[in-house]
Amino acid sequence: MDPSSGPANEETSSPTANGSCKNLECYMVLLEPEKRAIGSICFLAGPITLMENVLILGVIASSISLRQRPSYLFIASIALADVFASCFFTISFLDFHLFRRSDGPTAYLFKLGGVTVAFTASVGSLLLTALDRYICIHQASSYKVVLTRRRALLSLLILWSTTIFISFLPLMGWRCPTGLTPPCSRLFPYINRAYLACWTSFILMLLAIILGAYTLILWKAHRHESSMASLQGVAGKGQARMRMDIRLARTFGLILLILVVCWLPALSFMLVDVSRELTHSGQRAFAFCSTFCLLNSTVNPLLYGLRCKELRLALLRSLQRLCEIGRCRKSQRTGVTAAGDNCSEFSDNKMTNAEATELDSISKIVESQQDGNN
Question: Is 184 helix (H, G, I), strand (E, B) or coil?
């Protein structure tokens, strides 16, 4: 019998304790209205997340200047992790909760490992981005020396290697020793509560470091605002740069708020699952909250990509190149070349001086403010 359709008194009983968890049915607890609601979120957010992050990856990969900068390598890592999240989480979640597919321990843990890799790498990449911003603000004069492209790539290699190792520990043997009965997790089949406690603590630690980094960034931005306001005879352009720095600091606050709202509910249920046995109501609430993690992957490209001036300019240049290529191919097919088409001189890496002048970084903003203070 499906536990999600049982009587009300079964909400507080333990299917795993009385041996009624057959074919993982005690984990498939969503009611029909909940399936429709959560399924709609996944069917909508999954493809949108995939397209957004693929676009971010394509823009960074097509721009030589962005590929050389550590900040955009970290943003590309976030986008890659969110691409995996949009695929692995959406498919696995719908396959298990909506289509009620019961896999064996090896197949299930492999799928769960893929989801864990995606979300762990996403949070880890957000941490690297936060540390990058922290170094950029607090050590602006030596930023390019402290954080080189080689060091950025090395940090990404360490991040992804550690993430893959941690995520597939259950598949490698750290699983529940009693099958599906306690002390197994009531949220994830075959998962040992000790492993779930370690992974949850690890993610909470990463979030705490991100919180600390952004708090220090906001404090530094406030100091810049106060120091710039006290200067006399500062040019209007300098004031505009200062205001841009403050807007970036507010953006960091928005990033932090969204991060906490999306991750804290799911992590809270995981902590409860470690300490006590969840009811069906708790399992259903966790299934809903877990979709917030996917929504975080949906929002990341908007926060780290489209709000970034340099990446927007790179996107516009890419679209312009595509239009030029399409126009040139059309001219070649028809044999008619318009007066304004210079197909033979068209270059993918060409950047106008006006566009190059518009490109600016946080480190340059801070350096200009330090020069004003001196």
Answer: strand
